[in-house]
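[job 4417] fold queue: 2 targets
>>> target A
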Amino acid sequence: MQEVTQLKPEDFKSDQIVRWCPGCGDHAVLSAVLKALPQIGYKHEDVVFISGIGCSSRFPYYVNTYGIHSIHGRAAAIASGVKVANPNLSVWVITGDGDALAIGGNHFIHLVRRDVDLNVILFNNRIYGLTKGQYSPTSEIGTVTKTSPFGTIERPFKPGGIAIGANGSFFARTIDSMPKLSTEIFIEASKHNGASIVEVLQNCVIFNDRTWADITDRQFRDDRVIVLKHGEPMIFGKERDKGLILKNSQISVVKLGENGITEKDLLVHDAQTEYAGLHLSLANMEYPTHPVALGVIRSYNLPTHYDQALTDQVREVQQKSKIKNMKDLLHSGATWEVK
């Protein structure tokens, strides 16, 4: 952690006009990040945002930090290089469900596998927005778009399943309409040593409006999502009368008071356990059979992460090597002089 500064959210806001559609969920994510950055405590020059291509990838223009608007699907690779070259930077990857999981899918899973110390914010609106409404890897079966006029027949990816399945050490999920939760999660992601993947369920008002409405509408949101907190029982519901238990190795929904069920019978969330099986099950829960899990689902610190291991390896090789500079390199091995 760098020296704590007294910056405010507006200090991290750039002078660029935000060019997202009115009502787009991206605005709320930007606001949550701007609130998180001063609390994280870094200075402007210690932070870099790197994006690929897509509506969300305009993000680096709107924050007063270093930034790279890179190429489609390659933000994870570029960010990995930035972090390895300068381990002291706080590096954030801004990407979408198409950018990260289609053309960038290979880079995404290997970023997770290597556990590079980056923070990835994955905007998931189940559609390609910038290119005007094609179905994406997370679009629901039957979604009618310009590239699936009769409804897509492909099963969608679950970002949490991919992240945890690739041996990820940190996965969290939030909703664009819950900015307070988003800010809290971004702060937790920044503290994690390793690859932090945060999925944001985000709405595209133009090409896939209300795609998450079955769980985000305020009238029934509390009964259809569960906000997980480490060390606390898994309780949810507008009346706080529902919970999760483990039955026959599967997560089941119960109602407190029925069949003698009390709060003591509920699962207690352990985000920090090495065992990822329950984390994977929580990340993959879907409405209507289960509530959708929000909050930090997994946060397990591996012994070391890629950029740290690489730095240590380079330092060790340098100490043992007889080659100390370019002159040593050019005059090593089979060399001769031409006269």
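>>> target B
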Amino acid sequence: MIRFTLTLLLAVLGTSPLWAAQRPNIIFLMTDDQRCDNLSCYGRPEFRTHHIDELAAQGVLFNKAYYAVSICMPSRVTMLTGRYLSNHQVGFSPPYNYTLSEQGLKDSYPSQLKKAGYRTGFVGKVGFSVTEEKRRPNMFQPYDFRDHFREHFDFFAGDGTHTGSELRLWPEEDQALKEIYDKSNKKLTRTLRTGEAMLRFLETQPADQPFCLSVSFLAVKHDSTSHIYPPHLKLFQNTEFPVPENWVNGANEKLPEVVQKFWRGPKLHLQRSSTPELYQRQVRRFAAQGYTVDQQVGRMMEKLEEKGFLENTIVIYTSDNGRFQGSHGLFDKALLYEESMKAPLIVFDGRAPKEQRGRREEALISSVDIAPTILSLAGLTPPASMQGESFRQILDQTQDRPQWQDGVFMESLFINHLMGARGKPNPEEINERTIRDNKSYRCHGIRTARWKYFRYYEQDPVLEELYDLENDPLEQTNLAADPAYSETLQELRDRTQELYLKAKG
């Protein structure tokens, strides 16, 4: 009997340590538009994110985590489903403007966990629509979250941004949840409401059932002061934030011409971040919102400890995309420079022994890896539809490092002037005209431990950028035309094409 029990245990665990055998609770925290270095633990103490810093000090902080796509709707779907944008096609501009199918949601990590007996909850910005079969366009009215999300989430407080749906709350009999979102309560800004709803989920959690809670803060997106908790804005009103070395005062004429002419980032930079005064105003507002999020993380950790859940809970913290904040003479996100593509990623595991905590990890991680990792941490096999790799063994330090991925694929398929074509009868024709007129700045590429390569592949001729990030972390010198790097360039071209074909599926 003892030998049989040990054999069965080893079969379940594989090479995982014994402490990882428990069925853990999982909390996935995502902010909106929070640039990686807008956190103290990533080297910017002026942002004052003390509770998130503590999460990192007791967990694993990833130095080389990257978005597979860096704009909100497709990025959220990628992290939910473990699929690349080229595969799921849930984005803003045609032809990549489908809804997520019901089957796609069934294959997502929350649905898989619910099927396995977890209590599932969602709070905050959903950011995409689900229909029985995938369809275009994906932003339409009327739309009701209850039609497609109800069977997948036991607890739901979903904001309808980018979906056409109104805010929906369930369980309907939860009066305390309704009071949190009562519009007459003016004291609660959007981040405080999200924090209250997050705590409400934990307060109503049974002790005898594992749970998975996904929280999508609407902060730090949008810098209107109407979204910001006033006392927290006041905390930063006199803070002088250091200006990144690749911030550009005014326009950046070194950017590719197609980006200068047609991408909204240069124009938004001139409006919002192109002078020292504009830069300080913007970053103070982002910092205030990040501080409010940080306070909610602290409250959440206290609640987990109070309820006795902390020692069996995994907390994952990230954002949906980065933000330029004037770096490269750009505002917004999406393009494949570091400020847009590098993700904050922190994983705290309450089960882990002390000697495995407080670690900075250099393994390359993609946002497409998050969903399969969550399922793997829960002891489940990811569905075949998931394209990412579980980094569970990176976390518990059992991974054979030479076998781990040495490059991650990134893409940007958003064309801002095609947003208006979504509802027209000929969106694909308009897209083809955009390409034919050389107005497309769609790009894809690869990030390795040392190199960043990407190409604007619909340009004629194709435009390429190559950066040695060990020696040029701010991406100031494009080496693509330098003959000394021709072999590296060709190797990364080939690898990008290989990964692109894999991403399409």
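[job 4417] complete. Note on B: Residues 1-14 have pLDDT under 50 and may be disordered.
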